[in-house]
Amino acid sequence: MLRRGAKSIIGIGRIFKIMDDNRSGTLDIAEFAKGVYESKLDLTDLDIKTLFRAFDRNNDGSISYDEFLRTVKGDMNQRRQELVMQAFAKLDRDGNGHVDFYDIKDTYNAKRHPAVLEGRKTERQVLEEFLATFELALSGEGDGKVTPEEFTEYYTAVSASIDRDDYFEQMINNSWNLTGDAVTYQKFKKGWSLKEDET
Question: Which CATH number is associated with domain 78-198?
Fold first, then answer.
């Protein structure tokens, strides 16, 4: 697909839509097999089933657009990986190789998060759910500790939807303030955020 010009997000999305005959937003094995055949790939039925399983990253029997995009785009390049690891190192305040509630509790303020303001969740619950988003990208399960592998997998999926390296770098810096110029108190004061002394 990449050799045939489907390098951009738009190009990959176009291919996915063509394969998605029933417009369900996912590909079943029949749609995937038809797409492989129409791409003139000389694969056996077993090859197609094996390839389908590689695309079906969460093993639910169908391929979502995000799974399709992530598999076609592959891993992040070295520069993007370095930026992700810089962000991880910044979060891992005690340097023990994983990020947990204690790493972020003094950095991020969840008092203004809507769920906290409405009394539906505690600050700790909000912060632990925030961490869980990184864990779920790799294993689908969480233990409250984000490893470098989980953090990288999360951003590999994000990276797949960003064509240009400079945009990816800007997004990482805006999220984690790697260069010290992305976050201001004014930007965050209305929502849950970095604490004032961290901006």
Answer: 1.10.238.10
